């Protein structure tokens, strides 16, 4: 990878000062974007094979998700540029398996294509690789779940959703008599519904693989709805934690029915414009203008991912001082579920909250530095397959964003996820 300049601009694509080049214009065709992302890759990988793409295909596919699928644009507001921190991050080191790794090593080991560190709301470090630029729209994968859960909080504050203790069938009456009958929104948002779902990214017949197949052909919404509606119950609601993109899709559908808006439109209205994001984004639509996917599909620039992290850091407070999340929402979102499967020897406090993860250094990790006792505590992690991340730590006033193309969708925790927790803690320690 090559470290690219931080000052990319679309103005380089202007011809005669007013007309965009044909290549730049092609990046915007059919998207309704107000500016064109760069780079523009002429050939896109087949969306049907997303789970088996090569490393090179992942780079191209992840930064062109807004072209590979239909999408709804969420438009930016009037923004203030992010400025450089008074104390930039020069380097950070961590140790694992008897070896010490630097930040440069980490970028290579994690296949990082974008990294942003915001300390006190300022840029302490920024990296763009693989040809990505400040205008690149990178896809979130399941980081989008954390965005959806945040929008659910806003809908609660606005009264569009009455309570997390409401039954799903209050908003989705046609699910009465299915496995979702009797499940609350709280159980849905914490993935403790008890409804069976196979998230195996390596199994071509898993529920997630079937969802991916639905996304790559016409009639996506109806296809996914049939898949999710036809699931069966594995456990009583509330007793077991089991990660489910099917449940997350349903949560997004509930939110859209409650607000009467697509996810993209509600995000634009509530956060993207009022908070002052700098660029338009695109949300993967199953039915353009009608339904966006709640499980993933949020596409935005590196800095706007960081701005979203800052919004969470400040408990949902807009620049005008208005708090649009309920009091205590961020704390509640990281009050990890104690359901079976979430609690382990490595993470005795639990792994999962309101579609945010606890990715702390495991308390039983050996021969690692920073050790668990010296690592960042009480962080919220938005995580997506192949290494997409937003980490928010309120105590350190720290937000870290990572874009990656890991060789595996979901490696064992002792591999890339552990090293991410170690490096992010090392960064936090270095910036104190």
How far apart, in Å, are the first and last alpha carbons? Answer: 29 Å
Tally the beta strands: 15
Q: Which range best describes the helical content: under 10%, 10-25%, 25-40%, 40-55%, 55-70% or over 70%?
A: 25-40%
Order of helices and strands: EEHHHEEEHEEEHHHHHHHEEEHHEEEEH
State Rg.
20 Å
Low-confidence stretches: 1-19
Give the mean pLDDT: 94
Instruction: Please work out how many helical segments DSSP would assign.
Output: 14
Largest sheet: 5 strands, antiparallel
Which structural category do the helix and sheet elements fall into? alpha+beta
Q: Roughly what fraction of the amino acids lie in strands?
A: 5-15%
The rough form would be described as globular
Structure description:
Helices cover 30% and strands 15% of the residues. The protein has 432 residues and is an alpha+beta fold. The strands form 4 sheets. Strands 3, 8, 9, 10 and 11 form a 5-stranded antiparallel β-sheet that branches. The chain has a 5-stranded antiparallel β-sheet with strand order 7-6-15-14-13, with helices on both faces. A 3-stranded antiparallel β-sheet has the order 5-4-12. Helix 5 runs parallel beside helix 10 (245-259) and helix 8 (207-215) packs antiparallel against helix 9 (220-229).
